[in-house]
Amino acid sequence: MTGTRRAVWRFTDSPAILVVARVSGLALGLLSAPLLARGLSVDDRGTFAATAACLAVIPVLVGLGLPTAVRRLVAGGAEAAAVLGSARILIAIASVFSILLGWLAGRTLLPGLTGAEHWALLGASALSVFQISWVCEATSLSAQQKFRKLAIVNLLQQIVFVSSVATLFCFGELSLLRAILSFSFATVITAAAAPSIARTGLRLSPRFAKQLARDGLRYTGSEIVEVANNRLDQVLMLPVIGAIQAGYYAVAVTLSSLLVGVGQSFAAGSFKQFMQDPFGTAEIRRTLSTATLVSLLGAAMLTCIAPFAIPLVFSSAYREATPVSLVSLIGAFTVVPSSVGAALMLARDRARALMLCQSTGLACGIGTLYVLGPPFGATGAAAASTLGYIAAAIAIFWSLRVPVRCWIPSPATFRSGISVFVYGR
């Protein structure tokens, strides 16, 4: 193997490939978003965004911290196949509660759904536990630093969903009902394929079931709050600002989600090192300073392209989403360093403190949503989201007690951090 090929091979199994996968996922999302925007009405687009957010939150509520518990066990040296076999037993039990939560969401948060759409939501809620399954596979791969396979698993759901939406759009059959069913179909296909990609098999094993249940309960609070920070505002948009404004906000979230993906990639790449040496100052400073600089550069780039990209990609009907996106990006840039900080807190086994930090951001974001949302619509909702992200980041930075200089980029730490991020060493 030549030096160039060896470098490319290392790159495809480094944390940077997760960013490539995230960018590819966003590109696919930008393909599906115009199809959804053109195939659905603006209010149906907002309703679908809220429904998809519900279907993303439900697995976290019933999953009881399983993905984080799996990641810590595998990172600690436990056999991945046995850990995942125990997780599947707990996931099967969780499916009962997911149906109940789907029914409650349909009655309270999504009253605009028709009878058939309500039934589709119930079915999708029951199947949403498959998301717990493939996310556990993904966290296991992250703990083993098998980033190439992790990138494939993370990208697969989006590929299936976009393919389904594109097919329906081409045949003129795209509707809110079929969009919900497509979302559920993509989740099931991803869960079915993930064990083959990870090579863990489909066996069941009670060996780690009690430990996973016990440890998962410790981390469930932080997982629920983290997903609530990313999704709950979209769930609450319909009753607060209406379907049309929720559609504009959904476009802003699509754009800023790229920085969320970069943060998750940095966290995945640094977690195992943090587990091995949670108080190693040199590694912490290198990772945090690199994360801060990359986040600032990414936010600046997205700010420059947003005014041109949004009307071009989503159609001129979504031109009003441009200022919403710019406001959203102000807070989104804090996601990368705070994601790395959250990974460090989990490595130090400070799940409760992390939950409190994230709850601070959630309370700030949701509280200001009800203040700024009604008078200012999607722009007010984006401002509330920004305040929530900033509050969570400040709380995490303060809780870690990491010196401020560790967050400030320097040429030396940036070069070494990028070397690890791109080449895995």
Task: Explain what you see.
This protein is mainly alpha-helical and 425 residues long. The chain has one domain. It is globular and about 50 Å long. The relative contact order is 0.13. The mean pLDDT is 80.
Number of domains: 1
> Which stretches of 5+ consecutive residues score pLDDT under 50?
none
Overall pLDDT level: 80
Summarize the biggest pleated sheet: none
C-alpha end-to-end distance: 19 Å
Question: Based on helices, strands and strand pairing, what is the structural class?
Answer: mainly alpha
What is the H/E order? HHHHHHHHHHHHHHHH
The portion of residues forming beta strands comes to under 5%
Helical percentage: over 70%
Count of DSSP strands: 0
Compute the number of helices: 16
- Please tell me how large the radius of gyration is: 20 Å
Shape estimate: globular
